[in-house]
Design goal:
Layout: E1 3-5, H1 14-23, E2 31-36, E3 39-48, E4 53-61, E5 69-75, H2 81-92, E6 96-101, H3 116-130, E7 137-138, E8 142-143, H4 144-151, E9 156-160, E10 166-167, E11 176-181, H5 189-197, E12 201-204, H6 212-226
Parallel strand pairs: 1-2, 5-6, 5-11, 6-7, 6-8, 9-11, 9-12, 10-12
Antiparallel strand pairs: 2-3, 3-4
Helix pairs in contact: 2-3, 2-6
Length: 232
């Protein structure tokens, strides 16, 4: 079933309206799924004009959101890797994503910040595709020092580290978790020490060294599994 984001009053406007009318050519009476204020509803289109489509809301659908909120602090990386990270981690259930400029990041913070809006649009489209109702926020990039302060506000902080760490497998009971993933060059020793100094824990993703765009997705999946969010 086609999914659309709706305003608080249940109307569908802007790009969503254009997709409904011009791309899919839906009409009055067609059934759709509406994503509104973090909730999912069955709905039927009741009217369409040039400005908006209105719907009759039906049954509220079960939430597909994880109870465990995971924020991914992702070392800034080259090319379209961040697009992939945002899309796939949104599908998997991430709560928020924070790009971080780290010591071994090739990409540096651009004061004009031309990419954050695009990343948030990618997240929004991924939510529609996978049937979530909450759109994770992709924050503007920050320095490692800024991220370090922010990471202290989480209940648990995990750092996938190529130099080794604890294995995944034990149940995770915390419900507000941060994961720090290094850029292509990895996490510098002094950064790892800083993470451990605020109570962060180094973890291993196995004997193979994963690419940065793979590591975050794997760590997110394992964390959700240990938190009982993937069927057990």
């Amino acid at each position: 079933m086609h999914r659309f984001f709706a305003e608080a009053d249940g109307s569908i406007v802007g790009e969503e309206l254009n997709h409904l009318t011009r791309v899919l050519r839906l009409s009055v009476g067609d059934e759709i799924e509406v994503l509104m204020e973090g909730r999912r509803f069955q709905a039927a289109i009741s009217s369409i004009d040039k400005e908006r489509a209105t719907v009759d809301l039906g049954e509220e659908l079960p939430s597909r959101e994880a109870k465990c909120r995971i924020t991914l602090y992702q070392g800034m990386c080259k090319g379209d890797k961040m697009d992939f990270i945002v899309q796939k981690c949104t599908e998997m259930g991430v709560f928020a994503i924070v790009p971080v400029e780290m010591k071994w990041s090739v990409v540096k913070i651009d004061k004009k910040d031309k990419k954050t809006n695009r990343y948030n649009k990618i997240a929004k489209e991924a939510v529609k595709q996978c049937g979530r109702s909450f759109v994770p926020e992709v924050l503007p990039p920050m320095t490692f020092k800024e991220a370090l302060r922010r990471m202290q506000g989480h209940e648990k902080l995990l750092m996938p580290y190529e130099n080794g760490g604890d294995a995944f497998g034990q149940p995770i009971n915390e419900r507000d978790i941060a994961i720090l993933v290094g850029p292509e060059g990895g996490i510098a020793p002094e950064e790892a020490e800083a993470i451990e100094s605020i109570g962060g824990r180094a973890v291993t993703l196995g004997s193979r060294i994963l690419r940065t765009e793979t590591a975050g997705l794997v760590a997110l999946t394992l964390t959700l599994h240990c938190a009982g969010e993937l069927g057990g």
